[in-house]
């Protein structure tokens, strides 16, 4: 009996000392701030603004963007479309040393993953509309 109590106590102390040896690493959280820290590479095009998928009417002189359908359409884990949380979100776009900030107001049907469709005013900061398509980076802010 003495032996089994001593053995049990030793085992318990060993387990306790293992737990306090080094704290467990915290799981990485999938927060929007962690996701926004990464620049997304894609092509920038321009489009004629108007009534967008977010339900707002915008002018071509505003700094607004349409996100690619791959980001805009999928549902979030709770079943709501992304547009519920993406409309009105701000992005920072970069091209050739220039940066703009714009608001998400629409969905881009022809965009590929990572692409942005910019309003004419926003696109002209980077290049002539004649260029049609340029490659840049962007992220959520």
Automatic annotation (TrEMBL):
<keyword id="KW-0732">Signal</keyword>
<protein>
    <submittedName>
        <fullName>RlpA-like double-psi beta-barrel-protein domain-containing protein-containing protein</fullName>
    </submittedName>
</protein>
<feature type="signal peptide">
    <location>
        <begin position="1"/>
        <end position="21"/>
    </location>
</feature>
<dbReference type="InterPro" id="IPR051477">
    <property type="entry name" value="Expansin_CellWall"/>
</dbReference>
<dbReference type="InterPro" id="IPR036908">
    <property type="entry name" value="RlpA-like_sf"/>
</dbReference>
